[in-house]
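Exam review. A common question shows you a sequence with its structure tokens and asks you to describe the fold in words. Practice with the pair below. Do the first one on your own.
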Amino acid sequence: MAESTNMKGTIHANGNKIAVISNGNENDYISLTDIAKYKNQDSPADVVKNWLRSRSTIEFLGLWEQMHNSTFKLVEFDQFKNEAGANSFVLSPQRWIASTNAIGIISKSGRYGGTFAHQDIAFEFASWVSAEFKLYIIKDYQRLKSDENSRLSLDWNLNRTLSKINYRIHTDAIKENLIPENVSIKHQGITYATEADLLNIALFGKTAKEWRTENSSSNGNIRDYASLQQLIVMANLESLNAEFIKQGLSQAERLVMLNRVAIDQLRSLLGNPSVKKLENK
């Protein structure tokens, strides 16, 4: 797991707190250390090591890695599999990771330190610790994911609403400054569409029609598939374009200026920790 990890939440399983972290995508990693405390509060690391001694555990971890990790070292895995189960065999998470280049288990130091594993592996470990405890973990993990989806939906809708508000400002500026009186409704629509595509080109590098041609199997439009950063920038571009229109700037001039703004703002937002927090909630 090359990407940095961030605290995502806490599972409350029958009175026990279990940390959950994310590597920035849809995959969550759950603390094996916290799960192990259910079995041994004083020495959770020993519980994890005992689990790793089993041949069935090694085979499960190896299969998971082969399904998800193209750089998994099979030779080293076979060696562990052959040794597993012997009285002298001892395996720590750190040794497993270092020897096989595994990504399903990670070892972290610092504030949220301990051994974490992908949710698939964490649930398997929980089954070994206690089938009953595993059910508590799964139940509250589902609650955590539900809360996460609700927050993402709220953040997304807030940004879509902001974009719609600025869109009204944008279309009013077009109506007042670019559309002469007595122009047909049909031609008014053409003007609006042209200005909307001006923003699409400035931000996405393509028109709505070009996007639909490239994504014929997708539902919705180009903005429905925009990232959180792109939606924020689009809202800003709509306000700026409205001002540029009032200043009497040509469409060509506005396109160049808006494109520069889009590039600068996206670069800034992609590294903005506040936006990252919204994405990871």
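Now try the second one, then compare your answer with the model answer below.
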Amino acid sequence: MFDYYPEGWIIDTPENRAATLNISALNDACRDGKILEGRALICDSSHNLLVDLGCMKGVIPHDEGALGIREGTVRDIAIISRVNRPVCFTVTGFQKDADGHMTAQLSRRAAQDKCMTEYVRKFTPGDVINARVTHLESFGAFADIGCGIIALLPIDAISVSRIDHPRERFTVGMDIRVVIKSVENGRITLSHKELLGTWAENVAMFKAGETVAGIVRSVESYGIFVELSPNLAGLAEAKEDVVPGQQASIYIKSIIPSRMKVKLVIIDTFDYSYRPSAPKYFFTGNRIDRFVYSPPDSEKEIATNFISE
């Protein structure tokens, strides 16, 4: 299966620069139906996008701005929001403007249709693909999975350790890897936590007796849950004046694989604003059929099945 990339991935590649070098190269791209990228400069009052191609200007007419625009199933914000950002397109032709300057006619809709037909519609649960975060909501992150086609990554599928908002893990524009969780009626849902490692892989980064950094995730009557890594949290003994979201210095008291328990003691907590860093992935393949989070000797199994048994 040929890969199609999120918008912005190819704009600065030698191949894209060569294809937009001059009108002859653009003619070749037009003939071959090649998907290119340029930066959208302006969205005019009719919601046509003016695109900088380097050698000339290009225009994406309103109806060619995205899949679903013609039918009214996609709002114009899908076009307006691309200003000052890379957009993908195919070249459909050339014409002279009122001043006699040659302008390339472009279609983002055609590029997305090609991506949908040759790439997205072939997805099955368990496929691992590249994505780029486009915006964040309290219930999840939206990500470009190819040529500006957007899918939802629900908040509970981002990591094993629970978070209050996706901004605790991602920033807009961050490149990530995701798993296709489900494909239903053309709607794609993503997952992410299966790529962040099993309990055993995460706990192997720590040892009893160490004092390490953590993030307070929840304060309960019986103890305080502290995140040691996105896919690993432990339970600390109760301590006064601790609130969720604080950074913490944590002493690791014990690690019990059979119960998937990490017992902690909070040494100190403090408030600190941080910008999420790129995720660390333990799984680097292109396909995952079954993910078992729990260790083999655990009293219970925690697993994700991406294929029907």
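Model answer, second protein: The first strand starts at residue 36 and ends at 43. The domain at 199-270 is CATH 2.40.50.140 (OB fold (Dihydrolipoamide Acetyltransferase, E2P)). Full marks require stating both points clearly.
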